[in-house]
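forwarding from the other thread:

> can someone predict this with adenosine monophosphate?

sure thing
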Amino acid sequence: MLSPTRSRSPLASCLARSARRRQGTQADLLQQSLGACHLSTGDVFRAATRNACAPSPAMAAALDYMRRGALVPDATVWEMVRERAACLRCGGGFILDGFPRTLAQAESLKELMEQENLPLSAVVNYELPLPEIVERLSGRRTCENCKAVYHATRQPSRADGVCDRCNGRLYQREDDRSESITVRMLAYQRSTAPLIDFYRNLGLLLPVVAEGSPAQICERTLTLLESRLQKKREESADQQSISA
Ligand code: AMP
C-alpha cells in the first residue's frame, strides 16, 4: 500500500468509464490516503449551478449540457482545468477525477504536462457492468446541505429523506436519474474507448475492478498502483545500470 510519504512524488489520474460515481468516492479515498490534490470537473460544474452569481455565457452553456446528461464541450472543460493548473503542481501529487473524458482533453493534458515537466503515474479505469452502474447511481441520494451521500437501499439514512449528519433534505441529483445515466453511459462508451487505447499505448492504463466496498476498492487500487510504481522504479534502475 502507498503510504503518504511514499506518495509525495507520484501523480495519479483517474479516468471515467463505467463506474463514474464510484470513481468520485474512490478519488476522495485516494486523496485521503495519498495526501494528493483532488480536482473533480463534475464538482466544479455542480458548484457553478449553486453559485448565487450569474454564470458566464460559456459556463451557462456548459451547465445546460450537464443538465441534459451530455458532455460539456472540450474547450470549456479545458479552460476550466487550465485555470486550476496549480493543482497539477501540488507537492502531494494530484488526482484528476472525471477528466480527461475525451481524446482531445487527454491530448491537451499530455501537452501541458510535458511543458510543465510533470510525470503521470497511472490512469485508473474502474470497470463495472452497466446494469449494476444504473442500479447504484439511480439509488444515490445526496444531502442538499452537507453533500453527504446515501443509497436508497444499500446505505439508507436513518430517517427517510433526511440526512443523518445535519438533518438536511436528501434529493436525487438530476444526473443520477436513470434516463440521464443511460445517456451519459452511452456518451462515455463512445468517447472513452479511444481514451482507453490512448493510455494503454502510453503504458499508463491501470484497470481496476470496481466490485466490493469503497474501502476494498481503494485498497485494491493502492496495491495495483504501488506495484506499477515499483515496476517503473525497477525498470528505471535497470536502464541506469545499463547506461553506466
Ligand atoms: P461527473 O460528476 O464527473 O459525472 O460530471 C457531471 C457532469 O459534468 C457530466 O455529466 C458532464 O456533463 C460534465 N463534465 C464533468 N467533467 C467533464 C469532462 N471532463 N468533459 C465533459 N463534461 C464533463
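Residues 20, 41-42, 45, 65-66, 69-72, 77, 98-99, 101, 105, 175, 184 surround adenosine monophosphate (CB under 6 Å). thats all i got for now
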